[in-house]
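Reviewer 2 asked us to include a model.

Predict the structure of this chain.
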Amino acid sequence: MRLTIQAGDVEIDLEGASIQIDEQLSHVKAEHTWTVLLERIREARESAMEAAVTAAREAGLPERGSAFRALLENCALTRKPDQVLGAIHYLRDVEGIDDSPPRIVNELFTDAGIEPPGNLSLYLNRLKERKFLMVPTGKDDKNRFAILTPEGQAHLDKRSNA
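Predicted model (structure tokens):
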């Protein structure tokens, strides 16, 4: 069995039986190489997002919808809860929006040509239960102000690396 992971100029090449590869991978994760590799993957994802926005602008497409769709596709977010998490990430980190009532989230899905989530509060509450979202203090625990937690960001990162 062989496992090769390459991101830019960083390459991890492991070979052997499954248990040997697991052991080798544990050693690699403890090294600086693994951190550099993950950073390169994160950079590639951000570049893809920027390229999608640029391509949408140049093609005259509605930037918002095509950029959000590109995020969902690049991160393989096919399940509605993951898409809602991706929408919150997109609104906060790409568009810089701090207040996103259901209407704004549903518009984002519509602009992307994707069926809106419907009962958005249900999805947001479940994502909060899973510790993927939180509402900052002072916002009266209103879902419209929800932000990704480190666990939520890690979940999106894991999905994009899957």
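The chain has two domains: 1-61, 62-162. Helices lie at 18-30, 32-59, 63-74, 80-94, 102-111, 120-129, 150-161. We have added this to the supplementary material.
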